[in-house]
Automatic annotation (TrEMBL):
One of its GO terms (biological process) is threonine biosynthetic process. Its EC number is 4.2.3.1. SUPFAM superfamilies: Tryptophan synthase beta subunit-like PLP-dependent enzymes (SSF53686). Residues 2-85 form the Threonine synthase N-terminal domain. Keywords: Amino-acid biosynthesis, Lyase, Pyridoxal phosphate. This is Threonine synthase. The keyword Nucleotide-binding does not apply.
Length: 494
């Protein structure tokens, strides 16, 4: 398996082949500013799907990842995934449950094929240490980084940006890891109180939090600018853990397979029964993994993209216009992890949409990088869009409150604000012929203020996280400045 850049051949090696998995693991962006993708997607046959149905989560992770990784010995890769995906790691999130299944499926409405009812379910992805779906990939990434760095005798400085959940997931996965420092940017005062406390209360020597006076997009732009300074990146061994990192996306592909198997139930259904997935999406990483699973042959009938008031992606899938918003146009909402107006992973999907043509991607993203929009409506590319199975919708604060109330009253289930966005849009776009599986984003404890507004009561939280907001916090606050962030990194690298 070799990897190429969405923007051309700057990712090629001297012998004109693509780079390997471990070569791109630590790098984040390709040297030309593009994102890494495999030269071709590995295909999974219906017979293989039936075999995979019976696997544990760890064994399924190995089956999926081994299709993308050929430069880590199989026995080592098996050990890495077996050490990552354990009930011990994924039992901290949901009060009163042991996550032995890692990603349990909870039916809200059971399917009834005889009456044309496809069913409605939530795939629980938030049993990890930071109560968010990001743990599903980030815990693996931490183990992969430590393994590769030990083999090479190297160290790295991770630079990332978070809108709320990636930061804490990365920091909890990397804290104490040998050869790894983390510099995590977040938008100042634009995350929930719990999210800030999760990150800023960590005092590990290798963890550094930076709050920038701007939006997530400002923070992400800084990360990209530093990554595109090739001399600085090389000198300070800058690596990435955001979903621009291919390993993050590959790890997220796994739970689409697991969710599919849980939703279709009995053996013999793989390859015949289609499933729809509703995905709350801001940066397009989570739903991009679903797109890749579908390209691999998983029978996903629909990928339902749900946005909040920052509806850049919904606008594209409805109109063909991709119009990133300026900082002043990006709303602060009650689903803050989706307060994003430049979707970093979107480039990967558009690369597939335009037939893998890097020249077209360079042209389109020259507009995006200059702060302008592009319009594919009326082009053959937009005409191809339905073939990829995407539909979309958006949700507002009022919608979130109503969905949280309705879900609690009707099903006895408390959900977080982002999952509410997914459930609201997914419910509107259900079709009777296939189950609708909503991907859970986080546990409601992370967004206590809005849960109280919706339900008049506080959500439960694990005992280990009681009173986390009262712990001492350590964070550097600075203006939106690439130079200031570079200087901070210089000052904190030994």
């Amino acid at each position: 398996m070799r990897y190429i850049s969405t923007r051309g051949h700057a990712a090629k090696t001297p012998d004109a082949s693509g780079r390997t998995f471990t070569e791109i693991l630590l790098g984040g962006l390709a040297p030309d500013g593009g994102l890494y993708l495999p030269e071709s997607y590995p295909l999974v046959s219906p017979a293989e799907l039936e075999q995979w149905r019976r696997l544990s989560y760890a064994d399924l992770a190995y089956a999926v990842l081994s299709r993308f990784v050929d430069d880590i010995p199989p026995a080592d890769l098996q050990r890495l995934v077996s050490r990552t995906y354990t009930a011990a790691v994924y039992c901290n999130g949901r009060v009163g449950t042991a996550a032995s299944d890692i990603t349990p499926l909870r039916w809200l409405e059971q399917p009834d094929p005889g009456h044309g009812e496809g069913g409605l379910a939530i795939l629980e992805l938030s049993n990890g240490p930071t109560l968010a779906f990001k743990d599903m990939a980030m815990q693996l990434l931490g183990n992969l980084f430590e393994y590769v760095l030990a083999k090479r005798g190297e160290s790295i400085n991770i630079l990332g940006a978070t809108s709320g959940d990636t930061g804490s997931s990365a920091e909890y996965a990397m804290r104490g890891k040998q050869g790894v420092r983390v510099f995590m940017l977040s938008p100042h005062e634009r995350m929930s109180t719990f999210q800030r406390a999760q990150m800023y209360s960590l005092h590990d020597a290798n963890i550094h939090n930076i709050a920038v006076r701007g939006t997530f997009d400002d923070a992400q732009d800084i990360v990209k600018a530093v990554s595109n300074d090739h001399a600085f990146k090389a000198k300070y061994q800058i690596a990435a853990v955001n979903s621009i990192n291919w390993a993050r996306v590959a790890a997220q592909v796994i739970y689409y397979f697991k969710g599919y198997f849980a939703a279709t139930g009995e053996a013999g259904m793989a390859g015949r029964q289609q499933v729809a997935f509703a995905v709350p999406s801001g940066n397009f990483g989570n739903i991009c993994a679903g797109h890749i699973a579908r390209m691999m042959g998983l029978p996903i009938g629909r990928l339902v993209l749900a946005t909040n008031e920052n509806d850049v992606l919904d606008e594209f899938f409805r109109t063909g216009v991709y119009r990133p918003r300026a900082t002043g146009e990006t709303c602060a909402t009650s689903s803050p992890s989706m307060d994003i107006s430049k979707a970093s992973n979107f480039e990967r999907f558009v690369f597939d949409l335009v037939g893998g043509d890097p020249a077209t991607i360079r042209k389109l993203w020259s507009e995006v990088d200059a702060g302008r929009s592009f319009d594919l409506s009326g082009t053959p590319f937009f005409a191809r869009l339905p073939a990829f199975g995407f539909v979309s919708g958006k949700s507002s604060h009022a919608d979130r409150l109503a969905t949280i109330r309705q879900t609690y009253d009707k099903y006895g289930l408390m959900i977080d604000t982002h999952t509410a966005d997914g459930l609201k849009v997914g419910s509107e776009l259900r079709t009777p012929e296939m189950p609708m599986v909503v991907l859970e984003t986080a546990l409601p404890a992370k967004f206590e203020e809005t849960i109280v507004e919706a339900l008049g009561r506080k959500p439960e939280r694990p005992a280990s996280l009681q009173g986390i907001e009262n712990l001492p916090q350590r964070v550097a606050v600075m203006d939106v400045s690439v130079d200031a962030v570079k200087q901070f990194i210089k000052d904190h690298v030994c």
